[in-house]
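quick one before i forget lol
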Amino acid sequence: MPMPTRTRIAVVAALALLLAGCTGGGGGGDGRITLRFQSLAWQRESVEATEELVAEWNAAHPGVRVEYVQGSWDSVHDQLLTSFEGGEAPDVIHDASDDLADFAYGGHLADLTDLLPARLRKDIPERSWQTVTFGDGVYGVPFLQEPRVLIADAKLLARAGVRIPTVGQPWSWAEFRAVTKRLSGPGRYGVAWPLKEPVSATLNLSLSAGGRLFHRGADGKVTVRVEAGDEVVPRTIHDQVTTDRSASPTTLGSGGSDTLPGLFGGKYAMVPLGFSYRQQLAQQAPEGFEWRVLPAPAGADGLAQGVSPQTLSIARDSPHKKEAAAFLDFLLRPENMVRLALGDWMLPTGTSALADPALRTEKDGWAVGTALAEHLRSAPAQSVRGYAEWKDKVATPAFQEYYSGAIGAGELRERLEEDGNLVLARYQR
């Protein structure tokens, strides 16, 4: 079998170092340290901001060069797993907190507890650090996050005369359901739920109603148990689709971007979307279309909702962990975190960055997002081993069938609990 291209490159590079009389991983012939930073930035503004910051670091730190490596959200988990197993992982790794559990428990990521500066630990709230804490270690720095919000057609809201919710006085889930009925009419639905990936949206929004779903016992094992708070959001969506006819059934299998033409064309009055979708609204909305950002509905626990922030980690096998931590400290200075947040149209986790006036303007709904930041919590499934399999094999098809009306609430509960716990049990022996 031919040697893989990347392996051949690695072998040739190693031989070159030996012939040149060089020693030490990550070092160049001139004695400089080289850190490989794999970034998942993909929007043009985000890539530009990240590359600019890497260039600024390199200009100020001639002895520690950072090499920018472009990764992809679509394949990052499998790609990282392969690189860890092959001993070729980047020194600095961009990912999301809900993807870190297996890598952290598997020993592939460095514990950052004693590596990060006090400034950074203090600036990011504890609720955000909880998203990257597994066992007794901290395995990433959460730096960007986004709440789910309602993107609404401002003219349709005004025409219907509905109460406009604010962060201080949001809609309840019951009021939200009533509003979507009022906004519906011939050829128009009050809301379009893009639920191609229904699990994280359902679980994260359910925190507002007191939903937990995953319960960890005294023995540390996690079980799935559907309680009253877990039923509020799924029931609302189900009833909007199947009873009220106020939610479009055709968008249940769609992604967020797929719903925008219908929003622009007046087919949907509102769409629940991640905060970063505002960029597409700003770029794609036709002339004369007026949109506004509204907070998601609130329940028994207020506006609480789960998030899985974007993260920066250091590979356990990196020979230059201290230098990598120094780069993270630079990259996540308040002013730099603001640049990254603006590039991705997301919220920074750091309290200093979040206070920046550029992120608190009414334009494009930034002020709504920053006001929601204090209500964001660690996603319910954050540290659950086996969650990925439970989500793909059990929860996704169960929620899809329930929302479409193919199964009832009783069967949904049975599948989430009974089938789900069989899956999780395999990871907790």
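fyi The longest helix spans residues 387-404.
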